[in-house]
User: Which sequence fits this backbone?
């Protein structure tokens, strides 16, 4: 049977490719696009959908507004559809809860239901000819192949555990926090250790301390205290569309300098309100003489032994080297995420893609991976471009604008190769 060549195949259907679906509809109406998502249904970091946790970006940095403020897929359009626009305005917040934002994303995803195949994992790409790529998709036990002129990888980040640590019954990464807790029902642990000092770590500590009323929660990290995220207005400009132009054009040493200066907007930092809340609780417990929230600062986990009765976690206090052994029911690693390497997905198509001296793909300003001369097909990256486009790459701030840039790049390229043009 003849397999049709689609204009666009999207890998993953998180916020990035959901925003792309909206941009394609609004700016490239006739495009034949399909998205493959390995989860069984739409979900945005469900394991960390902690009630009360708020967004780290302004609600106007939604899927579409910075590209098209009149889009029907904006957060404001969602609020209107849900009958909550006036209530939200009265609330006077720019940072909705993640639960509400998840509901917004689900609402937007539902509008593109026909374009998405859930429970479908893309395993590799290979060139079909110069015009199209073969996209190999696993759905259940079946492998099937689709053809596409352009592929957009929006596969998100992958969780990171310290070297040698394997996840298990009692050893979790924060990405699974609510899932693991949900599996345990009415659980009454005596002690949980949370490793890390970033936003997810602080959120996990807050949530475990709030919801497991009998448990001691030990936060272990090497810093002296949680460090606040810099979300002040001038610092925030690093997430502006113009900042991507500046970063992209900068020489390597300037890129590295700008990245280091901006780290404290996103990496290993915590919202100040949350830091204050944790301190307030720790102090109140000190006053009451019953401390359940323990901050083991300037400390490092040496090892974790898993025995029949639970875990034994050895923690070193770095200034003195003193070692404390903690018996715990679970250790939660809030040790962050890293970019997925696009070459893991590119398969045989990777041989046609150019790499820089660091082994990472060479990416055009339009987010297309540079290829050797020949292929007319394109692979675009949403995420995994911190090295070329800067710190906003894995965040929502640039999503709306980036998808417009990708759609316009695709349109320009297809106009060039169209017969008679
Ligand atoms: C707990 C948490 C909170 C966050 N909060 C914020 C915030 O407030 N503001 C902000 O700007 N950023 C935030 N981030 C950063 C986050 O990266 C972005 O919010 C956003 O998720 C990026 O969207 P994405 O679509 O690129 O990636 P993801 O949301 O990770 O989506 C990628 C999707 O691709 C799917 N997938 C992966 N590989 C394949 C494959 N081979 N085949 C098929 N499907 C595949 C995955 O299942 C997933 O659904 C947060 C991150 C976390 C972990």
Assistant:
């Amino acid at each position: 049977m003849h397999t049709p060549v689609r204009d666009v195949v999207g890998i993953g259907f998180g916020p990035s490719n959901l925003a792309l679906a909206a941009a394609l509809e609004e700016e490239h109406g006739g495009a034949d696009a399909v998205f493959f998502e390995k989860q069984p249904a739409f979900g945005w970091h469900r394991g960390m959908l902690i009630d009360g946790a708020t967004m780290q970006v302004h609600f106007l940095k939604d899927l579409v507004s910075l590209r098209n403020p009149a889009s029907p897929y904006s957060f404001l359009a969602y609020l209107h559809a849900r009958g909550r626009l006036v209530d939200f305005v009265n609330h006077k917040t720019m940072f909705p809860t993640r639960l509400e934002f998840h509901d917004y994303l689900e609402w937007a995803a539902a509008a593109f239901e026909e374009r998405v195949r859930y429970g479908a994992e893309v395993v590799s790409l290979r060139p079909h000819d110069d015009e199209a790529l073969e996209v190999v998709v696993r759905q259940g036990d079946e492998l099937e192949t689709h053809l596409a002129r352009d592929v957009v990888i929006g596969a998100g980040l992958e969780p990171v555990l310290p070297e040698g640590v394997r996840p298990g019954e009692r050893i979790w990464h924060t990405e699974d926090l609510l899932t693991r807790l949900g599996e345990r029902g009415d659980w009454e642990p005596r002690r949980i250790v949370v490793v890390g000092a970033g936003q997810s770590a602080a959120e996990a500590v807050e949530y475990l301390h709030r919801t497991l009323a009998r448990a001691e929660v030990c936060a272990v990290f090497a810093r002296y205290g949680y460090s606040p995220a810099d979300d002040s207005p001038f610092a925030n400009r690093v997430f502006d569309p113009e900042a991507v132009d500046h970063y992209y054009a900068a020489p390597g040493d300037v890129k590295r300098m700008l990245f280091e200066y901006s780290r404290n907007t996103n990496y290993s930092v915590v919202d100040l309100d949350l830091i204050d809340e944790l301190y307030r609780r720790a102090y109140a417990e000190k006053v009451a003489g019953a401390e359940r929230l323990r901050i083991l600062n300037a400390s490092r986990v040496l090892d974790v032994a898993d025995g029949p009765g639970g875990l034994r976690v050895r923690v070193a206090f770095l200034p003195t080297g003193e070692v404390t052994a903690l018996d715990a029911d679970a250790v939660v690693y809030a040790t962050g995420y890293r970019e997925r390497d696009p070459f893991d997905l590119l398969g045989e198509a990777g041989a046609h893609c150019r790499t820089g001296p660091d082994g990472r793909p060479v990416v055009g300003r339009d987010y297309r991976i540079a290829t050797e001369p020949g292929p007319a097909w394109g692979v675009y990256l949403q995420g995994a471009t911190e090295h070329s486009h800067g710190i906003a790459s894995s965040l929502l701030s640039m999503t709306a604008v980036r998808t417009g840039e990708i759609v316009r790049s695709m349109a320009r390229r297809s106009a060039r190769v169209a017969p008679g043009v």
Summary: The mean pLDDT is 96. Residues 11-12, 14-17, 36-39, 44-45, 48, 55-57, 121-122, 154-157, 200, 345, 382-383, 394-397 surround flavin-adenine dinucleotide (CB under 6 Å).
